[in-house]
């Protein structure tokens, strides 16, 4: 099942939108009648629907509004080689603010203070219920699905600050979507690709993760409580590079989806 958030194209800017289930042909959206019902899917609940739209009538919003994005640094073996760094002994975690989130087809904005802003293609885990001190074997009960995320980074500021908050926290620096895929059978073996203006720049597999998803959820939930809608961004493979105004960047993850954003 693919779940997304939408609003009618002509609705106001403050419209919070609604959750919907995307049809198998990708052409229509069934509006979920209760906004929080999507998180009950983990309990075997089938959401009720009360209206069907053509997807062409709707603006695609970020699929969730997370309270926080917990991102993982240096979590692909090939990226560690690229950055000439040793493999970490524990996950390097940092937070991106919810205010950085934008959706499919939205614009990444390059801040004037930075001279190099990079793309980072990542598989994002979507938490489906409150998770605190979760055991590894229980992790699947807390994940509602997966989506794509671009961990946009002001690389020069990251180097300057050492801390990641400013470099990764600008508005528009967390493109997310387009939808949540709830039926990924093996998140540990997914092809992940990043395309800059149609040219393949990143190509790897989640099988190259240093710390797998079960380990990450257990590790993070023993540090902080994860809430429904929270995101874990699992790290980027090798091939990172700069974005410039006028660019288009696309992230394609096998069995998950394709996220497209523009740059200005």
Molecular structure report:
With 264 residues, the protein is mainly beta. The chain folds into 2 domains: 2-61; 69-263, Fumarylacetoacetate hydrolase, domain 2. It is 10% helix and 38% strand. It has helices at 77-82, 155-161, 165-169, 213-221; strands at residues 2-8, 18-22, 28-32, 49-54, 58-61, 69-73, 92-96, 101-102, 107-108, 117-119, 121-127, 143-150, 153-154, 174-181, 191-196, 199-205, 231-233, 241-243, 248-253, 257-263. The strands form 3 sheets. Strands 1, 2, 3, 4, 5, 6, 7, 8, 11, 12, 14 and 17 form a 12-stranded mixed sheet that branches. A 5-stranded mixed sheet has the order 9-20-19-15-16, with no helix packed on it. It is globular, with a radius of gyration of 18 Å. The protein starts with a strand and ends with a strand.
CATH class of the largest domain: Alpha Beta
Helix-strand sequence:
EEEEEEHEEEEEEEHHEEEHEEEE
Range of strand content: 35-45%
Output the CATH topology of the largest domain: Fumarylacetoacetate hydrolase, domain 2
The biggest sheet, with number of strands, parallel, antiparallel or mixed sense and barrel status, is: 12 strands, mixed
Task: Give a short overview.
With 264 residues, the protein is mostly beta strands. It is built from four helices and 20 strands.
Layout of secondary structure:
Elements: E1 2-8, E2 18-22, E3 28-32, E4 49-54, E5 58-61, E6 69-73, H1 77-82, E7 92-96, E8 101-102, E9 107-108, E10 117-119, E11 121-127, E12 143-150, E13 153-154, H2 155-161, H3 165-169, E14 174-181, E15 191-196, E16 199-205, H4 213-221, E17 231-233, E18 241-243, E19 248-253, E20 257-263
């Amino acid at each position: 099942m693919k779940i997304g958030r939408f609003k009618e194209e002509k609705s106001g800017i403050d419209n919070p939108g609604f959750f919907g289930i995307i049809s198998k042909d990708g052409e229509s959206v069934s509006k979920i009648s209760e906004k929080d019902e999507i998180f009950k899917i983990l309990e075997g609940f089938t959401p009720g629907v009360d209206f069907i739209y053509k997807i062409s009538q709707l603006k695609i919003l970020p699929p969730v509004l997370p309270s926080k994005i917990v991102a993982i640094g240096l979590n692909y073996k090939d990226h560690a080689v690229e950055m000439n760094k040793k493999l970490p002994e524990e996950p390097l975690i940092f937070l991106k603010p919810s205010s950085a989130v934008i959706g499919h087809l939205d614009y990444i904005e390059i801040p004037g203070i930075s001279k190099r802003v990079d793309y980072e293609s990542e598989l994002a885990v979507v938490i489906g219920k409150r998770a605190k001190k979760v055991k590894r074997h229980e992790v699947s009960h807390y994940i509602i699905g997966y989506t794509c995320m671009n961990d946009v980074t002001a690389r020069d500021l990251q180097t300057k600050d050492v801390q990641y908050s400013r470099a990764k926290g600008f508005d528009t620096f967390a493109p997310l979507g387009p939808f949540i895929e709830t039926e990924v059978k093996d998140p540990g073996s997914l092809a992940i690709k990043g395309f800059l203006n149609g040219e393949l720049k990143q190509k790897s597999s989640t099988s190259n993760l240093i710390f797998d998803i079960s380990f990450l959820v257990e590790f993070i939930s023993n540090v902080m409580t994860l809430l429904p809608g929270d995101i874990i961004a699992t790290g980027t493979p090798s091939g990172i590079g700069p974005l410039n105004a006028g660019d288009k960047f696309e992230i394609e993850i096998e069995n998950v989806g394709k996220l497209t954003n523009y740059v200005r």
